[in-house]
Amino acid sequence: MTRDQLRTIVLEELRRIAPETEPGALRADRPLREQVDLDSMDWLNFLVALHERLGVEIPEADYAKLGTLEQILDYLVGKLGEA
Amino acid sequence: MIEFTMPSLGADMEQGKLIEWKVKPGDAVRRGQVVAVIETPKAAVEVESWHDGTVHELLAQPGETLPVGAVLARWLAPGETPPAAAGAPGAPARARVSPAARRRAAELGVDAEALAGTGPEGAVTVADVERAAAEKAAAVAPRAPADAAARAAEMRRAIAAAMSRSKREIPHYYLSEPVPLARAQAWLEAENARRPLSERILMAALFIKATALAAREYPEMNGHFVEGVFRPAESAHVGVAISLRQGGLVAPAIHDVQAKPLPEVMRALADLVRRARAGTLRASEMSDPTITVTNLGEGGVETVFGVIYPPQVALVGFGAVRDGRVVASLSGDHRVSDGHRGALFLGTIARLLQEPEKL
User: Could you give the strand order of the β-sheet that contains B253-254, starting from the edge strand earlier in sequence?
Assistant: First the structure.
């Protein structure tokens, strides 16, 4: 899967939880969760959705690695590479 | 005969709009079964029957807006026979539908038997079917932005009415207490490490459970103040303040929290948040919270000074979890409890959170 395909999936799942999100308006230098105002329930649902779409496990201990959209993509690329 | 009336789904509700019937004349209805969908300023709500019975007649039409208490339908009580006045004696209570109307209903996906007819002797006509189909389509159509704005304004008015009443009628007192949370955090981390992603537990579930258990020890925090009298509740139905993405909030209940194991509280919370945001809450969830928990720590605030949702008498707030602690706060109704008992109640929540494995 290419990074662009992965980005499409991540944004699709994000918009399912926060339909008002405009991907073009996301800033690369700010944590996604903060920009889109995801509370802990939204965040958990977002990760569950990614897990179901991509089959990756995301331990709670890794949450700190999931900051900006690009960091999330880096993390998922790494995880998918391990599989 | 049992009357099924427009329910009051919170102190702020004066009227509701019937969106859809889930039953038709002749259907058996069980207590707790969802029988209708009602739209309030805050949400579309699935309304349950409070009684067992058989649907005798549906009086309200989808699309109608009616005041709280208006009779929407009548059930026959178990064992009751339908009154003989209408139709042949002993004939089953069944809608008359003209053959043309029946054909049109099949084409449009409308349940003709569930309609109240306007034809001769109450027969359902083609026009009745077409009107019902149009109303159904309008009810389920995606909301246009202008409609969403009107809805947001309506919700704002509903919140304003309830909160104004609260501040007018309830002499609030406020207490707060820093609660050490390191043990709960460590326990949760270990617990979540061995749980699949979809079964992870959030700290909010611990707050809700601890509040419910403490409320059982301090009954003056858990119940309703109605017509000058406090009625303690027999169970802790914890209302959870849920903010909606389009603005506004709802505070539906998780029922019998004190009796639910923590994973079940978490599942109920996730389900409630999902349905609150999708607009499919149930009437009993909207109408019967006995105490409310609001968790505002996500935005980083330290302490919550909450407004009690009448007719409840207490609201427990949690701020941000920071440096291994959280500030728990209580807004109490001074007509029902005093600061001393409130302090003991908060202290009990704090103590319960020190033993997360027992929650």
Answer: B172-180, B325-333, B314-318, B291-295, B238-240, B253-254
Output the six-digit token pair for B223. 């119940």
Closest chain B residue by Cα to residue A34: B299
Å from A16 to nearest chain B CA? 11
Q: How many residues does chain A have?
A: 83
**Is B305:B317 a contact under the CB 8 Å cutoff?**
yes
Domains and CATH numbers, chain A: 3-82 (1.10.1200.10)
- In the predicted structure, residue A57 carries a pLDDT above the cut 60: yes
CB B291 within 8 A of CB B211: yes
Q: B2 by DSSP, 3-state: which? A: strand
Q: Do A41 and B197 touch (CB under 8 A)?
A: no
Ranges of CATH 3.30.559.10 domains, chain B: 172-358
Which of the four CATH numbers 3.40.50.360, 3.20.20.140, 3.30.559.10, 2.60.20.10 does domain B172-358 have?
3.30.559.10
Assign B312 a pLDDT band (cuts: 50, 70, 90). very high
What does the longest C-alpha to C-alpha distance in chain A come to? Answer: 33
CATH number assigned to the domain with residue range B2-140, chosen from the 4 options 2.40.50.100, 3.40.50.720, 3.20.20.70, 3.20.20.60: 2.40.50.100
* Nearest-by-Cβ selection for B189 from A44, A45, A60: A60
Sign of CA dihedral A66, B328, B252, B201: positive
The question of ipTM being above 0.90 is answered as no
Q: What is the pLDDT of residue A37?
A: 86
Q: Does B121 touch chain A (CB under 8 A)?
A: no
Q: Which of B298, B318, B321, B326 to mutate to test the interface with A (most CBs of A within 10 A)?
A: B298
Whether A53 contacts chain B with CB within 8 A: no
Place of tokens 């053959």: B99
> Crossing angle of helices A40-54/A69-82, nearest 10°?
40
Nearest CA in chain B to A55: B197
pLDDT band at A56; cut points 50, 70, 90: very high
C-alpha–C-alpha distance, residues B317 and B296, integer Å: 7
**Dihedral over Cα of B88, B91, B95, B96: its sign:** negative
Question: Which of residues B54 and B299 earns the better pLDDT score?
Answer: B54
